[in-house]
């Protein structure tokens, strides 16, 4: 997605596993004249390490016709960026990330996300989305807080899982208490497990695969649900009502004809590609 800071368009990654409003690489941050330096904050990753980040405040960030005033964010920590790369072969395919938007950016706005069409939107409610042809068939679940993260609960044949929703993760990962590094866990094929069903609310999304690895988060979670699952879904997060909605598979959610995107000033809904 593109965000605008001081008239400049910046390509940013949506990372729903991050609680930072905005995280910028040093070269971009150095060119922003109106920033205000604040303090140094700490953050933690899946490896259990602590990182130090320079904290700042900007005048505003624009996303389409939406404007977020005085957002606070962090400068990217090179050590964190390096440690967050679990699969070096896959990481070589993608361009380096220079800007990242966390879930707190959308907290006052509500987020619609459709990775299959590279579309995002800001909308007041799921009802407004449905009036405009989106999420015609979906399941609803409570949005749960997981420390500084957000997620939902799913049922599997191994029991319930509290899942962290993370668009910054390529893979689905289930927590293991075994003493091994997360890198070693990914290298061993024996750590790839499948569940015969993955039920969110009333809908069973079928078989799902995870990599079993240690998740050394500050707050214990059962699993991370990443792009491996998210990519084929439409998702709407209603922060005001603490609800999350998932579309059912495409064959049961076909739209008739093209869908025209609308904007917040007109219809309280602002999807954009």
Commentary on this structure:
By secondary structure, the protein is mainly β. It has two domains: 105 residues, Cathepsin D, subunit A, domain 1, CATH 2.40.70; 161 residues, Cathepsin D, subunit A, domain 1. Helices cover 14% and strands 42% of the residues. It is built from eight helices and 25 strands. The strands form five sheets. Strands 14, 15, 16, 17, 18, 19, 20, 21 and 22 form a nine-stranded mixed β-sheet that branches. Strands 3-10-4-9-6-5 form a six-stranded mixed β-sheet. The chain has a six-stranded antiparallel β-sheet with strand order 13-24-23-11-12-25. A hairpin with a 2-residue loop joins strand 7 and strand 8. The longest helix is centred in the N-terminal third of the chain and has 6 residues. It is globular and about 55 Å long.
Features of the shown structure:
42% strand, 9-stranded mixed β-sheet, Cathepsin D, subunit A, domain 1, 273 residues, 8 helices, mainly beta, disordered C terminus, 25 strands
Mean pLDDT: 84
CATH class of the largest domain: Mainly Beta
In helices, the fraction of residues equals: 10-25%
Low-confidence stretches: 251-273
Largest sheet: 9 strands, mixed
Q: Radius of gyration in whole Å, from Cα? A: 19 Å
Q: CATH superfamily of the largest domain, please? A: Acid Proteases
Strand percent estimate: 35-45%
Number of helices: 8
CATH topology grouping of the largest domain: Cathepsin D, subunit A, domain 1
């Amino acid at each position: 997605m593109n965000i605008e800071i001081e008239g400049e368009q910046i390509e940013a990654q949506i990372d729903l596993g991050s609680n930072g409003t905005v995280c910028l690489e040093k070269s971009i941050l150095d060119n922003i004249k109106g920033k205000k330096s604040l303090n140094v904050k700490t953050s933690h990753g899946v490896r259990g390490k602590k990182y130090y980040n320079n904290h700042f405040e900007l005048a505003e960030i624009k996303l389409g016709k939406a404007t977020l005033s005085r957002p606070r964010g962090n400068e990217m920590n090179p050590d964190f960026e390096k440690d967050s790369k679990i699969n070096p072969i896959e990481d070589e395919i993608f361009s380096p990330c220079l800007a990242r938007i966390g879930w707190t950016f959308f907290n006052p706005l509500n987020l619609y996300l459709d990775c299959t069409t590279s579309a995002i939107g800001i909308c007041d409610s799921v009802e407004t989305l449905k009036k405009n042809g989106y999420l015609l068939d979906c399941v609803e679940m409570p949005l749960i807080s997981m420390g500084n993260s957000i997620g939902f609960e799913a049922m599997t044949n191994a029991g319930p899982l509290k899942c962290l929703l993370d668009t910054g993760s390529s893979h689905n990962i289930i927590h293991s208490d075994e003493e091994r590094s997360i890198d070693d866990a990914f290298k061993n094929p024996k750590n790839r497990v499948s569940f015969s069903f993955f039920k969110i609310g009333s809908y069973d999304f079928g078989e799902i695969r995870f990599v079993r690895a240690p998740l050394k988060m500050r707050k214990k979670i059962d699993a991370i649900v990443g792009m491996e699952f998210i990519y084929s879904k439409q998702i709407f997060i209603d922060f005001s009502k603490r609800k999350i909605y998932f579309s059912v598979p495409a064959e049961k959610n076909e739209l008739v004809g093209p869908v025209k995107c609308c904007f917040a000033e007109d219809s309280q809904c602002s999807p954009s590609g």
